[in-house]
Design goal:
It contains six helices and 31 strands. Helix 5 packs antiparallel against helix 6. The protein has about 400 residues and is mainly beta. The N and C termini lie far apart (about 75 Å). Strand 4 and strand 5 form a beta hairpin. It has three domains: about 180 residues, Copper Amine Oxidase, Chain A, domain 1; about 60 residues, SH3 type barrels (Roll); about 120 residues, no CATH class. The longest helix is centred in the last third of the chain and has 14 residues.
Length: about 400
């Protein structure tokens, strides 16, 4: 058995083990012409997240290119394909889409986040390295059995779907794995690790859907590895996260650790007249992101937002709360904990009183805390509570 893999760099280098008479020759890259025919006649099986795809959608080789069914792979990886006549559109990240059409050698990429004139561009379905340079290959999409077939390189390319792909060649068949590998093909880790930054956890490597999110220093169990991904368990959830978001070893965080590996945030610093110092405190000690502005949990990209108003404004900061503890959001138990530490920064000895207002759902429209005048109002358009926190007197 031999393997080749590609996990987002767009290059798959086949490694073939061929027995000739009494010796075994390992070919890396393109096979000699005399052997290509025998290899192309070997059955190719497709497995997505270790589940075999219906045989009518099996991959095939045409003109030296291995083709795989885009519609079926995207559906099983959470890409929510939209099929039209000999054409399919696949979600890449929720805001970016790839459209592939029968007979075309390039995919149309639409990025809704860019300016209107820059939103659409085209990427090749297949490339190859020639003398160290990347060259487009004229490998056209093919329509067959109600599927748009594309070169397997497009599935793994960073410019394409960016899914994990690994090919295993055996005596009787070739298996192309997309997404999660079977246990016996993955690298065993079985160690404790912790998150080095905020990161989403997906059900399969490369999937655009997510099962949970990690925050810095959150402790996890790392079961195994494949390519640039770790398979982890966090609380009662398991999934994949990029290796660069984790470090093997015990978390350096101290304090109470909850069942999902999260360490309760604890404020160590005091309020500063310099707003940049306060932002760093929120970022480093309470886990705020975007430069100390936003606190997020899985399922809600921001639950607390702190905006400095500048030295000439009538109040120091505006604090928005977009939610509190709720059974609908698993990680929302963290919001009251973080809020109490946040209130300590601005309200010091009066922090518990302000926290009780929120926890009881009875917030005065105007009150004084730690020498600051505070107003509270409900913002209907965002469903949030907005506090104006006055300058300290």
């Amino acid at each position: 058995m031999c393997r080749s893999n590609s996990s987002g760099n767009g290059m798959t280098y086949p490694v073939e083990v061929v027995k000739e008479n009494t010796k075994t020759i390992i070919y890396v890259g393109k096979l000699p012409g005399s052997l290509q025919q025998s290899i192309s006649n070997t059955p190719i099986v497709l497995k997505v997240n270790n589940k075999q795809v219906n045989s009518k959608y099996n991959p095939f080789i045409s003109n030296g290119t291995t083709y795989v069914p885009l519609n079926e792979i995207a559906k099983q990886m959470g890409g929510r394909p939209i099929s039209r006549s000999k054409e399919v559109t696949v979600e890449l990240d929720g805001l970016t889409f790839a459209t592939v059409t029968d007979g075309e050698s390039k995919a149309e990429i639409y990025d809704s986040q860019l300016m209107s004139r820059e939103r659409t561009h085209f990427v090749p379905l297949k490339t190859e390295k020639v003398n160290g340079n990347t060259k487009d290959v004229d490998a056209k999409a093919l329509y067959k059995n109600g599927q748009v077939y594309v070169p397997v390189e497009f599935i793994s390319s960073e410019n394409g779907l960016n899914y994990y792909v690994e090919t295993v060649n055996e005596k009787s068949k070739t298996t192309i794995y997309v997404g999660e590998l079977p246990v016996e093909l993955a690298e065993t880790v079985k160690k404790t690790g912790y998150a080095t930054k905020w990161a989403l956890v997906s059900p399969a490597p490369g999937s655009i859907t997510d099962v949970t999110a990690l925050v810095k220093n959150q402790q996890v169990y790392i079961a195994r590895a494949q390519g640039n991904w770790y398979k982890i368990k966090v609380g009662n959830q398991s999934g994949f996260v990029k290796k660069d978001a984790l470090k093997i070893g015990k978390s350096p965080a101290t304090g109470k650790m909850y069942d999902d590996g999260w360490f309760a945030s604890t404020l160590k610093s005091k309020w500063s007249k310099d707003p940049q110092v306060n932002k760093k405190t929120l970022e480093n000690e309470l886990g705020f992101d975007k430069g100390g502005i936003t606190y997020s949990i899985f399922g809600k990209s921001k639950v607390i937002q702190v905006i400095d108003q500048g030295p000439t404004a009538s109040y120091e900061v505006g604090i928005s709360f977009y939610g509190w503890q709720s059974s609908a959001l698993q990680q929302s138990y963290r919001i009251p904990i973080v809020a109490k530490e946040l209130f300590k920064l601005y309200f010091e000895k009066d922090a518990n009183r302000v926290w009780n207002y929120f926890n009881k759902g009875d917030i005065p429209e105007r009150f004084t805390a730690n020498g600051r005048t505070v107003t509270a109002r409900f913002v209907e358009s965002t469903g949030s509570i907005y506090l104006t926190v006055g300058h300290k007197k």
